[in-house]
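Review session, final week

We close the course with one last complete record, chosen because it touches almost every idea we covered. It is Cupin 2 conserved barrel domain-containing protein, a protein from Nocardiopsis sinuspersici with 183 residues. Go through it on your own first, then we will talk.
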Amino acid sequence: MPQSTLSSTAVLPTSETVTTRTPGVSPEGIGDVVDAGRRSGYAHLGERRLPTLGRLAAAARGAAALVGPTLWPARRGHWQPAPRAARRHAGGRLRVTAVVLEPNDLVSGSAPRSARARGMEVLYLVSGRAHLITSAPDGQVRSASELAADRVRVVGAAGSSGRSGHFLVNTGDEVAVVVRVTA
């Protein structure tokens, strides 16, 4: 494209040719724009920061490192709060629980909905071998996936009625220990 240049014969605007503009609309009258970033006086509108999946994964790995055979929960087959050292490592409002499963044992994998209002949950296999089973409300198996060692499994929202949801099954020949972190 050729560049246009201003010729010496161009007419510059004079005061007669310039129209006066009225002031434009300002954001002063719009509360959402003016108040953006400020704290609200209403508690239900307050900011609630959720932890990222990376933070949940790091908390699960840290808790798994601290949950050794001497600190395994004594009661088997039930989700229990992880040892104090593991819970302190997670920090914040994260909930750290652990379960010990005997071979061929089964436990519900998802936390109750009241415990995880936002539905953020990760599982980490500390030892043994386990599968995460997802079932439909009628009890049919939707999917089965193995929890891999040294890998964090992000768990989605489970069904809301009856026996639907996630279940952990120990499919190995030894005791399995799984850590769950919920936000």
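Two points worth writing down before the exam:
The beta strands are 80-81, 95-101, 106-108, 121-127, 130-135, 141-146, 152-155, 165-170, 176-182.
The domain at 53-182 is CATH 2.60.120.10 (Jelly Rolls).
Good luck, everyone.
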